[in-house]
Queue: 4 jobs
Job 1
Amino acid sequence: MEFETVIGLEVHAQLKTKSKIFCGCTTAFGNPPNTNTCPVCLGMPGVLPVLNKTVVEYAMKMAIATNCAIGPMNQFARKNYFYPDLPKGYQISQFDLPIAEHGWVDIEVEGKTRRIGITRIHMEEDAGKLIHDEREPKSYVDLNRTGVPLIEIVSEPDIRSPEEAAAYLKKLHAILRYLDICDGNMQEGSFRCDANISLRPLGQKEFGTRTELKNMNSFKNVQKALEFEVRRQRDRLLDGEKIVQQTLLWDADRNVTNAMRSKEEAHDYRYFPDPDLVPVVIDAAWIEEMRATLPELPDDRKKRFVEQLGLSDNDASVLTSSRELADYFEAALAQYPNGKKLGNWLMTELMRLMKGEEALDISQCPVSPENLAALLGMIDAGTISGKIAKTVFEEMMLSGKDPESVVKEKGLVQMSDQGEILAMVQEIIAANPEQAQQFREGKTKVMGFFVGQLMKQTGGKANPGLANDLFVKALTE
C-alpha cells in the first residue's frame, strides 16, 4: 500500500523588540535567571498589561510578506492552562480574531515549486523556561522569557514530505531575517517549530491520525525527525496497527522519537477575550505604511539576480537564502562587477571555510566584501593565480588581512616574466622526451603533466595561462 504524507507546521518566532509585549522589561537573552522580570510579566495581582505597538507592526510586516490578509480588528484572548513556567496560569494569545489569515509562500524542492498555505498568524507572549538538573530529580524555573513577544505562523496541512518541511522553514526563516524582526537563532529558541504529521492511503481525502513533534532546534533535525516519523507510522500501518495521537520529543543523539504525552482528546484551553486589553484596530493606511517599510524580499532579490546578473536559478537561490549573505554579495559586487565569478567564490571557498549553514550568516566573516573583491581583481590582473588565490583567501580568513598584504608577506606574486618561464619550459621538455613525443602524436592531455611540473618547480607561482601557451609553442616548433 502506498501512503501520502501530510505535514503541518506551527512556527514560533520571537520578535526583536527591545522590550516585552505587555511590559517594559528587556528581552535581552542570556541575563541571569529571573532578572528580566517585573510585576506585569510575573502575573502579580492587580497589574495591567499594555500592548507594545512595535509588536503589532512587526506582525503586520510578516503578514504582508507572506501574502496574508490583515483583519480590520484583532483581539487578544486568555489561553488557560497551568504549567510551572506560566506564572499567570494563562497565556495571552489570540484565538478567533488573529491579526492575519489566509496567506502563502512558495517553496522549491528538487526543481519544482509548490505553494504552501498559511492558515493564520497571531501574536502572543512567550512562556518561561524550565531548567532540569541532570544530577538530581529537580527543575528550576527561569521567567526571563515570560512575556517576550512571539508571532505564531500556522501552515495549512499542505506539506507532503520532510524535504518540503525543511524548505518551508528555511523560507520563513529567511523572510523573518530579511524583515529584521527576528534574529532566527534556533539554538536560543528565537525560531522554533512544532510539526504535526500523519499518513493516509494514497487517494484518500480524510486525514490519518496525527502525531506532534517537538524539541527540534535545527533545520536538519526537523527533517530527520519527520523522516523517522514517516517510517515509524508507515511500518505500524502496514502491520495493521493503529497510530496513537500523541506528542513526541525528538532525541537528536539517538535519532528517535520518544512519547511525551498522549493527546487522545483535544485539550480545552477555555479561551475568552482578555478583559484588560482592548481590540486592536488596523486601518488600510497603517497597512500601507508598513508595506512601504518592507525591504526587497528573498524571491524578488533572487529574480533580480537571475535577470540582471545572469546567475543560474540555483546560484541565485543560495545567494539570497539569507539577507546577510545577499548583502555581502552585493557589497562585493559594487567593487567587482562579475556576479558569476564572485558568486562561485562565495558558494565554494567562503562556504567551505565557514562550514556550510554557518556561512549563511557571514556578519562575523573576517574577510570584508571589499577585500574579497580586491582578491578577485588580483587574479584578473595576473598578480596571482587562481590556485594561489585560494591559499591567500585561507590566510585572509585566519588573519583578516587584505590580499595585497598577504601576497606581499608570503611572497606569492605570480611569475609572469615570459623569458624566465620559457627557460624552465624548455628544461622540462628536455627532461621528459617521452611525454613530449606523446604530445606531438596528438595526446594533448599530457599538457597537464608539463604544466604540473612547472607549477611544482615554481611553487605554484607561474602564470598558468602563459605557461600553457609557451609549452604549446615549444612543443610544436
Job 2
Amino acid sequence: MANRSDFFEEFQKNISELIAKSPAADIERNVKAMMAQTFSRLDLITREEFDTQSELLERALARIAVLEAKVQALETAASLGGSPQE
C-alpha cells in the first residue's frame, strides 16, 4: 500500500510541475495581471474598507440624529422664551 501512496504522490507532483511549466500557467498569470490592472482602474475598494466606511456612516448618522434633537429642543425653548434643558 505504501508503494501505491508514493506512486500517487509522485504522480501528483509530476502533474503539478507539468502544469507549472505549461503555457496554462503563463496564461493564468497574464489574466491575473490584466484583471488586477483593470480593477485598479475601476477604483474599487476592499470589503474591509467598505465595512469600515459603513460603520463610520452609521456613527455619523446617529450623531446627527442626536444633534438634530438638541437643535429642536433649543428652537422650542427659544420660541417659548424659556431656557433649554438637556
Job 3
Amino acid sequence: MALKKRFLKSKPICKVTFVIAENTGIQAAVVGDFNGWDAQLGTLKKFKNGNFKGVFDICVGKSYEFRYVVDGVYSNEPEADFDIWNDHAAAKNSVLVV
C-alpha cells in the first residue's frame, strides 16, 4: 500500500494518491472523514498489474481518519501519518494529515 500527497500552491487542496499494491481483490475503495465514509465516493480503479489506485482532492489544514475496503474487508494504510483507535468502529483507523 502507498500514500502520496501533492499540495497545490494555488488552492488549499492536497491531491492524495491512494494505492493498494498487487491485490487479488475485485473491488476496492478508500473511505474516511473526507468522503463521509462512502465507498462509492472513494472507488479505486484496478489496473492490470493488480494495483488499485485513486487520486482525491482533500482540503488542507485537517486530519482525516480513513480505511481501505477491499471486497468488504477493511484494512489500514501502513504508510499513514499515524493510527488512532476509533470506538465507533472498535478498531484502529489510519490517519491522514494534510
Job 4
Amino acid sequence: MINSPLFFSQKLRQTESAAAGLSLMHRAGEASASWILKHYPAAQIIYVLAGPGNNGGDALITASLLQQAGKTILLRLTSPSITADAKNAFAKWQATGGQTILATPDHADLAIDGLFGLGLNRAPSEADGQIMAGLQALGCPIIALDIPSGLMADSGAAPGAVIHATHTLSFISHKPGLFTARGCDVCGEISLHDLQIPAHLYPEADGYLQNHAPVSVGQLLRRPDSHKGSYGTVGVMGGASGMSGATLLAGRAALHIGAGRVVLGLLDKTLSADPVQPELMLHSAEEALQHPALSFMLTGPGLGNSAAALATLRQSIASPLALLLDADALNLLAGSAELTAAMQERSSPSIITPHPAEAARLLHTSTQAVQANRIESALTLAQRYKATVLLKGAGSVCSDGQSWSINASGNAALASAGQGDVLSGIIAALAAQGLKPLDAVQSGCWLHGRAADDWRRAHPNGIGLTASETISYARAALNQVLGAY
C-alpha cells in the first residue's frame, strides 16, 4: 500500500508553476462545486467567503458554478482580488450576474471558506478574525478550500483565529499541516483533489502520511524452525516506588507484540512476579542491566528522578544494546549535558519517544515552540541526540533526522494514563524482533493508533479506553496486517 506524499508550501508552489498552463483555479473550482453538489445536494443557500488571493479565486469559481447549478449564492469578498487569476475569476462572477454582500448573512445551509489558502504565514488580523467568527457562528457545515483559513499549511500551527471546517478539500497534494497539531482539530474530514496534474510535474515529496502499516512489518512473520530466543529479549528499566505500573504496562505490551522474552528491571523490587502477566521476569534494576540475554533495552517507564534512576539511565546509555528512552529517562536526559554527549557518542541505535512537553525540555525551549513546528522539532531532536524520534501527539511525527512521516492512525481515546508506556513497549518489541529503528517507530506508532481506531468503532464517543485494553487491540491489529502477507 502506498502512503500519501506530503509537500511543504514551497514545493507546492513549484508544482503550481510547472502546471501553470492547466487552468488550476478553474479545475479547483470545478472539483469543489462537483463535490459540494454530490455531498450536499439539499443545500440551497450557500455562503461563500472569498479572500483576495488565489484561494479566494478558487472560491469565486466554485460560487459561479454553484450559481449556474441553481443554488442561491451569498458571496462576501473581503477585499479586492490581487492576483491575475483571482481578478479573472471575479470578472466571470460579475459577468454571470453575481452580486456580493458586505456582511455575514443571518442564515445559510452551507458555507465555503476561501479566505486564506496555502500562503498564509501569520495570524489573521483582528478584522479577519471577526469575519471568520461570523462564518463559524452560522452553525452550518463549512467546506474549507485547500486548507482551513488560519491554519499554517507547513506546520499545523494556528497562531490566531482559525476556521473549524466540517470537510477540507485539499488541492494538488496533501499538506503536512492538515494532519498534525491544530490541523487534527480543525480540518474535519479531508479529501484530496489532485486537479489531474501529471505525476512528472511533482517534485520529490518532503515527507509522507503513514496511512498504512509499513511494509517492513512483513519481516515479523515467523519461521517454523524458531524459538523464543529468535525474537529478542527486551529489558524494561524503571519501576520506582509507586510507579511500577508504567513498567508493567510497557513489559506486557512488549510480550503481546511478540518479544520472545521480557525482563523488567525495577528500582523498587517489591514485586517478585506480575500476577496478570506471569511470563514477565522481574528483577532489580541492577540485576536486569546485567542480564546476559538482553537484546534491546527500554528505559524510562516509571523510572522517577532519583539518584538510582540517574545511575540506571547512565548505564543504559553506556550499554552496547539498542536503546529506547521514554518518559522519566527523557527528563533526566534533558537536564544533563554529560548524558546528552553520551547519547551523541553511542554507536548502537537509539530511539526517543517524547511528548511535546518532554521534547521542549530536550530542546530547551517551550512546548508552544515545539507545537508551532512539530516536524522541525522532530528533525532537530533526531540530529541533536543521534536518535530516531517519535514526537507524540495529534499527528505524531516520526523522523531519523533526514526523513520524516506523520502518523495517520489514532484518535483522542488515547488521551489516558499509561498509553505512552504501552507505545514504548510496542516499539521495543518490534525492534527486538529485527525491525530497523525508523521502521519500528513508524510501525509501532501506527499499530498503537490503529488499536484505538478499532476500539472506537465499538465506542464511538471515544471515552474510557485504558492502556491495558489497548495492548490486546494492538496485537489483533498486528496479526490482521500480517495476514495480508
